[in-house]
């Protein structure tokens, strides 16, 4: 059994100017003897789009999964919107969070996966309304209006009454993005959202994400293998290598003039 970490070195909450929307502070994640994240420090500012690239197995998806609280971290603290994600303050100390606190923190984060996982028995519109009505308790009429707006934004208004099985992969992914946005997250996570798609429909999904970047002040963290897309869309690109950030820079710099040999090797291999 692992010894509990002393968390007194971590602030109970982040305050002051320029509090990042997401902060990983010395986060370690292990599976048995395999270290997947090694004392990771990563900040994402409000409204920033950060893309994570790197070899398979370097820990990219784990970063997103720990943010979704799908994986427990072994060391360190993750802050979202200034507050610890899985801990809360009690008597001046950080203690494991209650279910209620965790639910509130989770609601700040939306995620889209490679496999869209829409509810198959519901229409596109019902998929978008489900969370707002049943989890957030928003009146149906209001949830419907907002969902219709979001489906319009992702170019799916005319398909709102279709079930997922009648939609193409690209269309399902666009509904999945609208559904995640309907929960009004402060942070959106995208994990390889174009990997399962046919090449000809990838553009319709990347265009939706482009719109989110230009029109919404959302904080976004994206894992992708599409280097061209990462280059176009990101404010910052982080190259992961063995659970650490090997190099991070604005895309023009990271792709145009990588400093690390490992980054250079990776980029020349994926081109
Ligand atoms: P990436 O997204 O960069 O491909 P991941 O974050 O998915 O990498 O995985 C990082 C490492 O963690 C890989 O070596 C993977 O095999 C391992 N891993 C992921 N999930 C588990 C798990 N549930 N149990 C054991 N090992 C895991």
Structural write-up:
The radius of gyration is 19 Å and the shape is globular. The chain contains 9 helices and 12 strands. The model has no long low-confidence stretch (mean pLDDT 93). The chain has a domain of 71 residues. It is α/β, with parallel strands linked by helices and 271 residues long. Helix 3 runs parallel beside helix 5, helix 4 packs across helix 5 and helix 5 packs parallel to helix 6. Helices cover 35% and strands 25% of the residues. The strands form 3 sheets. A 6-stranded mixed beta sheet has the order 8-9-10-3-11-12, sandwiched between helices. Strands 2-1-4-5 form a 4-stranded antiparallel beta sheet, covered by helices on one side. Bound molecules: adenosine-5'-diphosphate. The site of adenosine-5'-diphosphate has 11 residues, from strand 2 and helix 1.
Task: Outline the secondary-structure elements.
Blueprint: E1 22-31, E2 34-44, E3 49-53, H1 60-67, E4 75-80, E5 83-84, E6 87-90, E7 93-96, H2 99-106, E8 109-112, H3 124-134, H4 140-153, H5 169-182, E9 187-191, H6 199-215, E10 219-223, H7 227-233, E11 236-241, E12 244-249, H8 251-256, H9 261-270
Parallel strand pairs: 3-10, 3-11, 8-9, 9-10
Antiparallel strand pairs: 1-2, 1-4, 4-5, 6-7, 11-12
Helix pairs in contact: 3-4, 3-5, 4-5, 5-6
The protein binds adenosine-5'-diphosphate.
The site of adenosine-5'-diphosphate has 11 residues, from strand 2 and helix 1.
């Amino acid at each position: 059994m692992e010894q509990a970490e002393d968390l007194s070195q971590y602030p109970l909450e982040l305050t002051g100017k320029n509090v990042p929307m997401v902060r990983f502070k010395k986060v370690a994640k292990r599976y048995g003897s395999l270290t997947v994240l090694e004392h990771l420090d990563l900040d994402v500012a409000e409204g920033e789009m950060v893309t994570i690239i790197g070899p398979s197995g370097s820990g990219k998806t784990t970063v997103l999964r720990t943010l979704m609280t799908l994986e427990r971290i072994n060391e360190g603290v993750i802050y979202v919107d200034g507050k610890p994600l899985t801990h809360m303050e009690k008597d001046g100390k950080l203690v494991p969070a209650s279910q209620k606190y965790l639910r509130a923190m989770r609601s700040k984060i939306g995620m889209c996966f490679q496999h869209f996982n829409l509810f198959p028995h519901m229409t596109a519109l019902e998929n978008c309304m489900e969370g707002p009505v049943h989890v957030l308790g928003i009146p149906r009429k209001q949830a419907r209006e907002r969902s219709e707006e979001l489906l319009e934004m992702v170019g799916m208004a005319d398909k709102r009454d279709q079930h997922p099985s009648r939609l193409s992969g690209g269309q399902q992914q666009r509904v999945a993005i609208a559904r995640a946005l309907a929960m009004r997250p402060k942070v959106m996570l995208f994990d390889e959202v174009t990997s399962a798609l046919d090449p000809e429909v990838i553009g319709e999904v990347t265009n939706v994400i482009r719109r989110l970047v230009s029109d919404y002040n959302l904080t976004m963290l994206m894992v992708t293998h599409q280097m061209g897309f990462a280059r176009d869309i990101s404010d910052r690109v982080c190259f992961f290598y063995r659970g650490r950030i090997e190099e991070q820079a604005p895309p023009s710099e990271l792709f145009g003039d990588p400093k690390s040999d490992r980054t250079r090797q990776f980029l020349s291999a994926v081109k």
